[in-house]
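ZP: hey, is the nicotinamide-adenine-dinucleotide complex queued? I don't see it on the tracker
AM: it wasn't, my bad. submitting now with these inputs:
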Amino acid sequence: MNTLPHWINGAEVTTETTAPVFNPATGAEQAHVVLGAAPEVDAAVQAATAAFETWQDSSLSQRTQIMFAFRQLLLDHEEELGRIISAEHGKTVDDARGEITRGREVVEYACGLGDILKGSFSDQVSRGIDVHNFRQPLGVVAGITPFNFPAMVPLWMHPIAIATGNTFILKPSERDPSAANFIADLYQKAGLPDGVFNVIHGGKDAVDAILTHPGIEAVSFVGSTPIAKYVHETATAHGKRVQALGGAKNHAVVLPDADLEFAANHITAGAYGSAGERCMAVSVAIAVGDAADHLVDILTLKANEVNVGPGNTPGTDMGPLITKAAQERVENAVTTAHAQGATLVVDGRGLKIEGHENGFFTGPSLLDHVTTDMDAYKEELFGPVLAILRVDSLDEAIAVINANPYGNGTALFTSSGEAARRFQRRIKVGMIGINVPVPVPMSYYSFGGWKDSLIGDHPIHGPEGIRFYTRPKVVTTRWPQPTQHITAGFTFPTSN
Ligand code: NAD
């Protein structure tokens, strides 16, 4: 059975300890991945530190050319990488290609490096004195990423970090680790010098070694909220700059004036796409006033039409969950919701797919009459479960969402511009869709939620990504004429 190695300084490195990697559609072990700890992290930091010495001095045009070549390779290998992701994650190949596309857009943003990194210049701020500023890379930076987007979430980080002159260590999820090595190979083919991009596989031991290593300047994290809090606390205590994106509970509000068929179609795709394992998945629909009954009728029809199966089979809408434990957790949550008083309109539990009886499948579940005190509402289920809450007004819906500890994404379905404007101004959520169910920002904006969905103060990619991976310098310059006599004052300098 194949054992996936680390990637340090442009070469494969193995360690003895390994973990199994499953095919979620069959439930079978299909590979092993090495599990690194402090020694492997230290080796990667040494390599990345040495590489930084020359990479930081590479020209903007050299970095841009490598990013262009990397972008083309991502495009050329999209199908192959999509199949690798589908086999380890379970999502459909088309969905995996979608995440590669959204990740590639960050590379395209990074290709505009020359424009993005331009500083400012102020002429004659004082007599004979000019001021300019520019930004420089931090050094060695690391990214720790979740299982649900094994290509896209790391691509939110490393193209920006590398294009701005840093060297990078990626610690991907141990559940679907192959995409990281595939990307490492593409970077090498694109001409990236060895040591600029490294991959360390592993779990908590590898993460802890990254968070405490004195040679790492900054840590980017995306994953669940408890781990995001832990990463933020630990890495900042060790003097690092940290961006830490956490979990989510995303609400879609449907007003009676919305096109209910349109809303139900998009909410169904947003709830059950990728088996609900998206940080921007719609997990709660809030039906306002008399929208509720008709909306639930259409959602029921749509949920029953979702085609569940292996991710590599054409026609599949939704694949399995990532692990057996995730399958059990989601099905138990549906059982508990029913026991706590929710109406189980569509029951996805116990689904068996012919020929894939040991796969980690569960069908779409639809829960009506959910209330905010139920566990199914309070917890991030991260599975294909849509909960429906019924309220009387838009203001009540806004109050529900604002009281929720998470604030990643939200959507409003309406035909009223006034309602849309009120919603987007008053809602305490970072990413908002108006008649758009999964409002993931384009790469030239930044991605990040509010409240427990983002710990600290650094959204990811776009302009915030540039800011995160660089630090500013301001230079005040005077070139006096040799004959010019300028007296030095003992008072604090002021301009005149
Ligand atoms: P996770 O928090 O379990 O794991 C994320 C990373 O942390 C992995 O690399 C993992 O190896 C590591 N890790 C896990 N437990 C750890 C521990 N105890 N100590 C140190 N490191 C640890 O998340 P996951 O299950 O892989 O991914 C799903 C979660 O990620 C969901 O909560 C989802 O909402 C969130 N997510 C958020 C965003 C966002 O942009 N806000 C995007 C994608 C996923």
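AM: back. The mean pLDDT is 97.
ZP: great, adding it to the tracker
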